[in-house]
């Protein structure tokens, strides 16, 4: 800890001292013996702000705050002012009581005052929610902003009425909005993405993989905290004191036993019940208004055809709540327009016939299939965490993983288009193992967490039916993405999770690739029967500012006009890929030594989150919003390789770009595995639409199109595949 950090940590302590002095000063009696001491509630407000200031001091002291001391001072001032104002709530309340007296006039004026406060805090809450993560708040879409403000305002009014004119619910909502904004800040910084509705079903997974991430924060978070403190300070004045009349009249009622007093007491009870009911009705009305705002926001976003290819940009342009609820409304898998099972089966059959009509490819497949019948090879699939060749982004001196790119004896290899970037590994798993595309599931969803997969056919269940033993491997918690349940539904016989890697060597973010490959090799050596092994690695997992790789191993690339910090992240990532490349070379060498046939599929699940800004900086002349530019970040790479001579295959690394949803069909075709009608249809579809993802589709000439573009040359294929996907997935879950 340096001296500057220590001195900055003292700034919030000054605010704590000031509030402590005010509490002590107001506790003393004033002139004439008048008691001006604050109530316990007012002291609780002030102590709450003192606790907030203490948290700020501790965060600065431990180095989690990485911003300037000026913002820390602003935060401290805001919390101190808010706490000081809260201490005045009783004094101001007594003056208001003295001025207004009692009766309906007093109640009406206090209600108007409270509503003005709630409306003011609703405006404050918008900034407390957005400003920590949204650096484009001044350029937000005006209509989207109005919808979001409407949601916040009506929700704040709902809380006010629900809690019977108390500020508790409003306080909770304001703090919740602030914390959601902070969570969004961290998701953007650590993953390069935004919080999606599906993330709510994956909180356990997010927590499990957060080890090693850097949770420091910048000035924007403290600024949002300062705004939140001011909002809380204003809310302290909502109904600060009870009516002086109520206490005296209740006391009088207790002393008097007359019928008149009893009637008055009953009248007060009736008025309170009426007020309770009226407030609940108003709260319900505000709740319905909030829901109506979410529907309006969704309609506006859908009408604008807002694209969530790059969710951070979309969220910043439209606001968090507007974007989040719009995606949430799209969570159900919608049945294609005019869908029928019979028509979908006919479409599937048509495309399956196209695969069989491709004479050259089908002849090769038939030879491999005949060979498969006599020599069932082990099928090993490695989905390598964040493995990609990011030289596709542009020229910055990097030429890709050396050994991987030198492999010239593959059955097939090429670019692999993905639906996720920086995270969402389970969606790449889903597309690969089921053959379904996330283009028809939707943005912000994670099928593993949302649907029962009991009736979904997968590559694992297909091979299991052919007599294969099926094993899944992932050196992390089995509960992540609900893999422990999903893998069983997919047809895996066993799942080797982190418990199978006790004392295994680690690199960067987890167990090394090589350690998982040793587990694969053990299975192949100790079981002569046909094996299907699906290995999901871990070592390359984000973040890339852990600075835990020895200096002598680090690569030394840089991108012009990029900070040293961002270049350090780039090199940490590229060093991980370099290590994965070496481990792959080790695995290939070991597989060559085995006296049994093995087919290896190796592919990356997605690019790292840093690719988004690297892409913009490497090619600044490109339109950052164009599909051509964005699709560079939604692609990895794959190889299909064999340690034996596959019939009718030259094994000269035929190059073929594809997408993850087609990959299992390509693997089955190359290995000679008996193809399902769905796999044949995917192969037939890939002839004219070689790749499709949640981001876009690619034609045979390499041109990209939006999947929602009904005028594109691929519109018919996109529609047909939607029907086929619904037949094989949507209709079964």
TrEMBL record:
UniProt subcellular location: Cell membrane
Broad class of the protein's primary localization: membrane
Residues annotated as domain Sulfatase N-terminal: 378-668
Keyword Iron assigned: no
Membrane topology category: Multi-pass membrane protein
Domain of life of the native organism: Bacteria
A Pfam short name: Sulfatase
Pathways per UniProt: Cell wall biogenesis; lipoteichoic acid biosynthesis
Transmembrane feature ranges: 6-23, 44-65, 71-87, 108-126, 146-163, 170-188, 217-238, 273-292
UniProt KW keywords: Cell membrane, Membrane, Transmembrane, Transmembrane helix
A Gene Ontology term for the protein's cellular component: plasma membrane
Protein name: Sulfatase
Species of provenance: Parafannyhessea umbonata
UniProt lineage: Bacteria, Bacillati, Actinomycetota, Coriobacteriia, Coriobacteriales
